[in-house]
Amino acid sequence: MFLEQFPEDGKYRGWIEVICGSMFSGKTEELIRRLRRIKFAGQDLLLFKPRIDKRYSEESVVSHNGATFEAIQVDSAKEILDHWKNERIVAIDEAQFFDQDIVEVASHLAAHGVRVICAGLDMDFQAKPFGPMPFLMASAEYVTKVHAICMSCGNLAQFSHRKTKQTEQVLVGAVEEYEPLCRSCYNKIKH
Ligand SMILES: [Zn+2]
């Protein structure tokens, strides 16, 4: 695996990693896998999530299989820099919900030696690139696309099909409204 290799001159440099995919593709599992290894290595880590639902202000966590990481909820990408105190690792979950400044923030951190790990949906339910994700993917050193399994045929799926008629891009707290579909099954439903 290419990740976490140190340059030959021994100098630690920053970079951007993106983990992307549809809903139910295991993005969070992959993020947590990386975060566990970082924690095990004793490296300083900050994890951020966008505050999507402003009605709730409780502690936000990202968890999977018993591993739990506290996430700092922020209202804007720039706010990430207010929290950063030279931690070597900055992870960003649900990166698709951030404003475009997230690209500049990630690049700024990487330029200062930070390993930036962004996880997010690459496409919305209409199969359009989601928010700042295409720009993050373009500027990242490493992009990992993970796949779900098509609910209809069992092939690898990369589309998050919304089963209801709502058309807003963000449906908060409604994962059950979606199903992962492959290209062929998604196209059959769309046309
Ligand atoms: Zn299919």
Automatic annotation (TrEMBL):
Q: Which reaction does it catalyse?
A: thymidine + ATP = dTMP + ADP + H(+)
GO MF terms held by the record: ATP binding; thymidine kinase activity; zinc ion binding
Q: What is its EC number?
A: 2.7.1.21
Pfam families annotated for this entry? TK
- Residues in the active site? 94 (proton acceptor)
- Note the superkingdom of the native organism: Bacteria
Query: Where is Zn(2+) annotated to bind?
Result: 150, 153, 182, 185
Main localization is cytoplasm
Q: Where in the cell is it found?
A: Cytoplasm
As for family, the record states: Belongs to the thymidine kinase family.
Name under which the protein is recorded: Thymidine kinase
> What is the source species?
Brumimicrobium salinarum
**Gene expressing this chain:** tdk
